[in-house]
Specification:
single chain, mainly alpha, Alpha-lytic protease prodomain-like, Alpha-Beta Plaits, 8 helices, elongated
Length: 273
């Protein structure tokens, strides 16, 4: 936990550094593509802070109001990400609309600062992917940041040396890509909360039951958070089996499933017919 906390802190610092260079490039260099890059960088830094907050709450132990723990509270991270980037996209659209058909000047300082800002984001992505879980949503938008930086360096340079229109078209393209990623992430969050059963988990669960010589009558599994699953299983045991024997078998199965599949199950016993 302490290790992950330190990694999140490092990611925040790296995101802030990358965003700072882009903001400077936007204001000093006058590039609209760098402006888009800068605003999404600000949203990016705010996202990791919010995500870290929800992550801390999600790992708290069960209490009187949350009998199964706080795992799903971590969804506040990707939901906040969608909100922040949607707001950012709206601000960008308004700004680009205000300069539509208006000539402006782009300086080579804009792509220079964007190039410097690219370095910390690459490191931040690697760390976010290493942490995994909910940080993957952050990594996705940080990858957008890297793509934006590379594109921005190219179009801002062309905007400074050839025509500002290239810079403006680049800004429009980056904005469009941002909204495409928003739609993709929305679908993923929707899938995340829709209690989709993992076919692999169900298959492996049946294999564990088979080891004990038991065939499930019914299996219901749902993803709670990340790679944590919960569910219930109905099995049939011989009518002449004692309660103690049945308890021992069921207890062993539940422990195996938890240890091997990170899945918490409750087993309901029916007598064999």
């Amino acid at each position: 936990m302490l290790k992950i906390t330190k990694m999140f802190l490092i990611i925040v610092i790296l995101s802030f550094m990358g965003g700072l260079f882009k903001v400077l490039g936007s204001f000093i260099g006058g590039s609209k593509s760098v402006f888009v890059d800068a605003l999404t960088s600000i949203a990016n830094t705010l996202t990791i802070i919010v995500m870290y907050r929800f992550f801390n709450i999600s790992v708290e132990p069960p209490d009187e109001d949350h009998h199964y723990g706080h795992h799903r509270i971590e969804l506040g991270g990707p939901i906040s990400t969608l909100m922040l980037y949607s707001f950012t996209g709206g601000v960008i659209i308004v700004d680009l609309y205000n300069v539509f058909n208006k000539q402006y000047t782009v300086s080579l300082l804009a792509p220079m600062f964007a190039s410097i800002g690219l370095i910390p984001y690459g490191i931040a992505i690697a760390l976010a992917k290493y942490i995994g879980g909910i940080a993957i949503y952050y990594a996705r938008f940080t990858i957008v940041e890297v793509i934006e930086s590379i594109t921005t360096i190219a179009v801002a340079s062309a905007g400074a040396m050839i025509s500002y229109l290239i810079d403006f078209i680049g800004a429009l393209a980056l904005t469009g890509y941002l909204f495409i990623e928003l739609v993709k992430s929305f679908k993923e969050v929707l899938d995340y909360i829709s209690d989709v059963a993992s076919k692999e988990i169900v298959r492996d669960l049946k294999s564990i039951l088979k080891i004990y010589g038991i065939v499930a009558e019914r299996i219901r599994i749902r993803r709670v958070s990340g790679n944590l699953y919960q569910g219930d299983v109905v099995v049939r045991l011989p009518q002449d089996m004692s309660v103690a024997e049945a308890h021992q078998i069921i207890d062993s199965i539940e422990k195996d499933v938890k240890n091997k599949l990170n899945t918490e199950i409750v087993i309901h016993i029916e007598p064999e017919q």
